[in-house]
Write a structure and sequence with these properties.
The chain is mainly beta and about 130 residues long. About 15% of the residues lie in helices and about 50% in strands.
């Protein structure tokens, strides 16, 4: 189950509990994406102070260069702590004798894959190669 499916499941469970209890939606509180350094939470509290939580680990952005000795990237190698829809600036820095060609990505949406300074919008854990 991916992150979007987990969030959807949490919302469905909360909605089902709301319907079963007969409480109005306005009687519920929801707090989304509270980051404590290890995970994000979706916290839902009903009018009777019952709490429901879903814990989601932060997204990871893994960077790579092909061929491996052709340069480096910013951010370098691997960073975590991102959430869904975060937009991250990425940069390709080719070493002398090499030229940037394009970006390839899984788990995100690239801004301009043909430009060495661009962005990626994270939709899941992402792997990006310059």
């Amino acid at each position: 189950m991916n992150r979007c499916q987990l969030l959807l499941a949490a919302c469905i469970l909360a909605g089902a509990a709301e319907l079963a209890s007969g409480e109005e939606a306005s009687a519920w509180s929801r707090e989304v994406n509270v980051y404590n350094g290890d995970y994000f939470t979706v916290d839902i509290t009903d009018a009777s102070s019952r709490e429901f939580s879903v814990y989601l680990p932060p997204l990871v952005l893994a960077m790579d260069v092909s061929p491996p000795d052709a340069g480096t990237t910013i951010p370098d190698i691997c960073e975590s702590g991102y959430e869904i829809d975060d937009v991250v600036d990425i940069y390709a820095l080719p070493y002398p004798g090499f030229a940037f060609d394009h970006w390839e990505a899984e788990g995100g949406i690239l801004g301009d894959p043909d430009f060495p300074c661009t962005t990626i919008t994270l939709t899941d854990n992402a792997s990006v190669t310059a």
